[in-house]
Amino acid sequence: MKVPLTWLQDFLPLDLPVADLARRLTLAGLEVEEVRFVGKAPPPEPARGRAIETKVSGLAWDPEKIVVGEILEVMPHPQADRLVLARVQDGTGEHVIVTGAPNLFPFRGSGPLPRAIKIAYAREGSRLYDGHRPGWELMTLKPAVIRGVPSASMACSEKELGISEDHEGVILLDDDAPVGRPLAEYMGDVVFDISLTPNLARDANILGVAREISALIGEPLRPIELKVEWTGKPIAGRIKVEIENPDLNPRFVLGLIEGVRVGPSPYWVQRRLRLAGMRPINNVVDATNYVMLEVGQPLHAFDYQALVRRAGGVTPTLVTRLPKRGETLATLDGVARKLDDFTVLVADSVGALSMAGVMGGAETEVTDATTDILLEGAAWSFLNIRRTLAAHKLPSEAAYRFSRGVHPALAETGVRRGLMWMQRWAGGTIAEGIVDEYPEPRVDPTIEFTLSDVERWLGIRLPAQEIASALRRLEFGVEIQGDTLRASTPPHRLDIGEGAVGRADLMEEIARITGYDRIPETLIADVLPPQRGNRHHEREEHVRDRLVALGLQEVVTYRLTSPERETALLPEGVDHSPFLRLANPIANDRTVLRRRLLAGMLEVAASNSRREPHLALFEVGPVFHPRPESDRPDELARLGLVLVGRRALPGWQPGDAGRMGFFDLKGAVDALFDDLHLPPPRWEPGSDPTYHPGKCAHLFMDDAPLGMVGEVHPLVLETFGIVEGPVAAAELDLRVILDHMPDAPPARPVPSYPPVLEDVAVVVDEKVPAGEVERVIRQAGGKLLAEVRLFDVYRGEPIPAGKKSLAFSLVAQAPDRTLTDAEAARLRSNVVQALETGLAAKLRE
Questions:
Q1: Are 74 and 85 in contact (CB under 8 A)?
Q2: What distances in angstroms separate CA 40 from CA 18, 181, 724, one per listed residue?
Q3: Where are the beta strands (DSSP E) in 742-818?
Q4: Tell me, what DSSP letter sits at residue 331?
Q5: 166 falls in which pLDDT band (50, 70, 90)?
Q6: Which pLDDT score, from 0 to 100, does residue 703 have?
C-alpha cells in the first residue's frame, strides 16, 4: 500500500518527522518498507536511521531551479515538425524552450493562449531523471541547440521528476498553480510504502492508515466530507435491485449522476493516483479508484443509458446471482470468459454485466460518450471472491480488498463520496437518493473483558481509562463498569471475532496502540499445562532415526498429485479406483490427494539418479483413500523405501559395485526391524502390477498385512524416465510397525557360557521359502537355539532338479551352563526331524 503524506494530511494534521512516523507505524504492525521522497529533500542520516529497517529513496527538486511555470504561447519549430517552441513565464521573466511533448501540439500556432497552461519548469543546472533512457538515470540540465534553436531549460514530464514512469507528455498542472513557486512546495510529497498483513486489510486505504496514526499520536481525525448535492430527479423507480443470495452479496448500493463530461481528472488527482500506484484513466473511473484508495470501498461505474437500452427502454433491474449453465461474459480486458458455477454476477434481464468484485463487463463500460453514470458500491463474500480470483487469475486493486473483506457499512459511504467527486471533476446532476438493498444488516460484535484479562494476556496492568482511550481512538465504543469493559466494534472492521477470539483481537489492538515497547520482559507466571508425550510421534521419529542410521536419506514429496501420476505405477496405465479430488486445486497437475507414496518417490529418484550413482531414500507420510460412506477419507500412515544405483561407490579397495536390487532392500527392512526390536517379518512370494513378476513379496507382521517389497516393473521405470534399473521399492503400513514397537527394548544378560556351533544343510523343494525353513528350525530348537543364519544356497549336481540345498549355521547356548554333547546332539536331532516331518526336507550328505 503506497500512501502519500499529503493525502494523509487531508484527514489529520501531521508535523511529525517522517522517520519518526515511519517508525511508529512499523512498531504498530504497519511495516513501512520504503519511504520515497518526491521532490522533497530526505532528512539527514541520523534522523533517517530512526526508521526501523526502512529504505529511503527519491529525488529532491532544487527550489531555485525547479518551479511552476506558465506557457504563454506554443509556436511551430522552424526546422522540425515533431518539435514546438514554447514561450514560458517562470516568475523571473520569459524564456523559450524546445520540446516534443505531444500534449502541447494541439496549442501550436494559435497565438497567445486563451487560458493558462501551467507546467513543471526546470531551469539550467537542474538535476533530473533522464526521460529518454530506461530505468532511473540522473542527469544535469545543460544548454543545448536543438535543430538550430537554443534551449537552456525544459518543461518536465513525470518521469523526469521521479513521480512515475510516464514520459508521454509534459505535466499540465491545475490552473491555480502559482507561477514561480518552487515545485517542491507546491506538489512535493513523501510516499510511505506499507506492507500490510492480511489482518490489517482494513488499512488498505488512506483513511485506514490515517485512523491508525490518529490513534498512535492522539490527534483527532477530521470528519470525512460527504456533501452530496441531490438536485436531480429521484432515483427511485429508475433502477431496481434484487439479491438472490445475501450470504454472497450482503449489501448492494446504487447512486445515479447524469450529464457528466468524461475527460481528464485534475492533475492533483492524477498525481495522487500515480503516487499510490494506479494509472489515471478519466475523471469518472479515477473517481471510483480515488474513493477505493481513500476509504477502502471499491466502486464500479455502469453506463446507465447502456443498461436502459439493454432493458428495451424500460426500468432496468440489476440482479446479483450465480451463473446459468454455460453462461459467458466479455470482460473489460476484451476476453470472453466462461463463468464457473460459483462466480457471483451482477446481471440484468439480458445477461451478465460484471463479475462481482473482480471485473466489469465490456458492454456497459464507461466511454468518452457516456453521460449518465450508475455508481455501484457493494459488499461481497470474501471467500467467494478468492475462489473467483484463483479460477480466472484476475488480480486487481478492488479484488485485493474484496478478497480480504470489506465491511458492508462502507458501501453507502463509498457511493456518496464517489458521486461527490464525480460531480466536482466531471460536472453533472446527482439524482436524489440512493438505492440501498441490505436484506440482513450486519451486527458487529460487542466484546466484554476485564482489567485482569489485559494483565494476564499482555503482562502489564493498565488503567481502565487508558485502555478505553486507546480503543476509542480506533473508533470502538467503550463502556466502563468497574474492572469490566465492553467494547463495540466500529462499522468498518471485519477482523474482530466473537467471545474469546474477540478478546484476543482486542488485546492485540490495546498492545499495538499503547506500545509493544511498554510490555516488560517477565517470566511466565501462569500454570504450565501437563506435559504428555505423543507416543505415535515419538515412535515415528524413532523409525526415521533408525533409517538414517542405516544410510537412507529422507525425502518429502507432494501430498497433492494427479491421477496420471498414480496411474503411471501400473504398466497397463489403467486405474479405475476412486480419488479424493480437491474442489479448488492449486495447480492443474495437483488435483487429487495421493493414494501411494511410490509415485512421488520415483519422480525424486528419476530426477536425482542421473547425477547420483547411489540413492537410498525413504519417506514417512500419509496417503488418502476415499470412504464411500463418508466425505472424509481414510488417512493412512505409510513408510516408503526406494533403492537405486550401485551398492558401493568405486574405491581403492575392492568392493561390490553391483547395482542394488531386491535383496538389498530386504536386508534394509530386516535391519530396520532388528533395530526397532521387532520380530522378523514374514516374507511370502507375491504379485503386484507395479513390481517385476517373481521379484516381489508380501510382508506380514504376525497375521497383519504389512505391505509389498519388490523390484519395480521395467515398464513403470520407463514411464517415470528411469533409464537404468533395477529399482527396489517398498510401501509398508507404518501403523502396524508403530503398534508392534515395544515401549522398551527387551534385555537379556550377556552369556557367560560358551556356545555350541552346528551347521545343517538340507535339501527341500524349490518352492519352499528359506524363511519357512528358518521358522521350523527356530521352533524345533526352542530356547537353547540362540541364532540361526542362512549362509549357503545351492542348486545343481548332485541336487535333483526342482530341489535346492539350504545350509544354516546354528548357535546353541544356555544362560546357566555349558551344553553337553548329548544336549547338542538332541537339539540337532530335533531340528532335522522337524524339517523332515514338516517340510519333507532331507539332510544333505
A1: yes
A2: 11, 14, 67
A3: 756-765, 785-794, 803-812
A4: B
A5: confident
A6: 85
Mode of pairing for the β-strands spanning 682-685 and 592-593: unpaired
The C-alpha cell at 216 is: 498512535
SS3 564: helix
pLDDT in tens, 335-362: 888 998 899 999 999 999 999 999 999 9
The DSSP secondary-structure symbol of 196 reads P
Query: pLDDT, tens digit, for every residue of 575-595?
Result: 777 888 888 888 888 899 999
pLDDT at 46 over 60: no
**What mean pLDDT is reported for the chain?**
91
ω into residue 798 within 30 of 0, thus cis?
A: yes
The DSSP 8-state label assigned to residue 740 in this structure reads: H
pLDDT in tens, 592-644: 999 999 999 999 999 998 888 999 999 999 999 988 777 788 899 999 999 99
What pLDDT is attached to residue 49?
Answer: 47
Distance CA 354, CA 303 (A): 12
Q: What angle do CA 678, 681, 687 make, to 5 degrees?
A: 155
Q: Cα–Cα–Cα angle for 676, 679, 682, nearest 5°?
A: 120
**Mean pLDDT across the stretch 205-230?**
92
Specify the amino acid at residue 839: L
Q: Tell me the pLDDT band of 519, cut-offs 50, 70 and 90.
A: confident
Per-residue pLDDT at 833: 92
Contacts (Cβ under 8 Å, ≥6 apart) of 366: 262, 282, 284, 285, 301, 302, 303, 373
**Judging by beta carbons within 10 Å of its beta carbon (0-12, 13-18, 19+), is residue 640 exposed, middle or buried?**
buried
Reported as a single tens digit per residue, the pLDDT across 291-317 is: 999 999 999 999 999 999 999 989 999
* Helix and strand counts by DSSP (H, E) for the chain: 23, 43
- Listed in sequence order, the residues at least 6 apart from 814 whose beta carbon sits closer than 8 Å to its beta carbon are 753, 784, 823
* Poorest-pLDDT segment among 24-33, 424-433, 622-631: 622-631
As given in the structure block, the three cell numbers for residue 161 are 521528476
Closest by CA to 812, choosing from 748, 745, 760, is 760
Q: Distance (Å, rounded) from C-alpha 355 to C-alpha 483?
A: 49
- Report the first-to-last Cα separation within the chain, whole angstroms: 89
Q: What is the mean pLDDT of residues 263-289?
A: 94
Which residues have a Cβ under 8 Å from the Cβ of 725 and sit 6 or more positions away? 644, 659, 711, 712, 714, 717
Q: How confident is the model over 392-422, as pLDDT tens digits?
A: 888 889 999 999 999 999 999 999 999 999 9
DSSP 62-119: PTTTEEEEEEEEEEEETTEEEEEEEEEE-SS-EEEEEE--GGGGGGBT--S-SS-EEE
* 633: nearest Cα among 595, 663, 600: 595
Spell 140-150 as b/e; 16+ CB within 10 A means b: ebeeeebeebe
Residues 6+ apart with CB under 8 A from 817: 753
Instruction: Report the relative pairing of strands 634-645 and 727-733 from DSSP bridges.
Output: antiparallel
Rounded to 5 degrees, φ, ψ at 645 are 110, -165
H/E/C letters for each residue in 502-563? Answer: HHHHHHHHHHHHHCHHHCCCCCCCCCCCCCCCCHHHHHHHHHHHHHHHCCCEECCCCCEECH
Q: Give the cell for residue 323.
A: 451463473
Q: Which amino acid is at 506?
A: L
Contacts of 695 (CB under 8 A, 6+ apart): 661, 662, 710, 711, 726
Kind and range of the H or E run holding 603: helix 598-609
Closest CA to 364 of 303, 447, 425: 303
Residues 6+ apart with CB under 8 A from 367: 262, 303
Q: Beta 189-195 vs 138-140: how paired, if at all?
A: unpaired
